[in-house]
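Entry for the shared binder. Reason: the reviewer on the internal report wants the predicted structure included alongside the sequence.
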Amino acid sequence: MVTEQMGAVRTPGRPRSEKAEKAIIDAAIDMIAEGTGVAELSIEAIAARAGVGKTTIYRRWSNKEELVVDALATLKAPLPELDAESVRENVVRYLAVMQHETNHRRTRCIMNIALSESERFPHLAERFREIAIKPRREALRGVIQRGVESGELRADVDVEVAMAAMTGAMLFFTKWRDSDEELPADLAERIADQVLGGLRP
């Protein structure tokens, strides 16, 4: 291995450590998307696919569950800024992100596996909820609570049920539709209007 000499000019681009980490994450995601379950996944196989040594992986993650959690978290699209003036616009933005994610087969496959493996790997499921799910729930909860405080929504709104109604409706369409059925372009708007219609004063 060639070491850098003092005063040598570094080539532009992503640092080696970042490149290695991305290669490892991509390898883990690809293997799971291809059908390898978490139980069958191994550090050795991931390292071979990523073109790195096992020690490179263990310097970053203590075990494969930690690696898988971080890999899954990268597939969650960041939430848009939920700072619109109306509750409706913020809910539409939130649901649109959920719908957009289902357009990618890789993401759908990974999410399905993550949920199906939750009983066998409860620590993985818990960490995934903390990293990828909880921040989203808190964001949506904040939107609804602000709507209640501003008077846009009823004071007696059950926030948890309202959240479940919104996200559950989107999951119904995205997870249980026929594989060749196109989702309506205005699905997020339709769900928002239907649910919010029962929450307004």
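Summary line for the report: Residues 7 and 112 are 50 Å apart (CA to CA).
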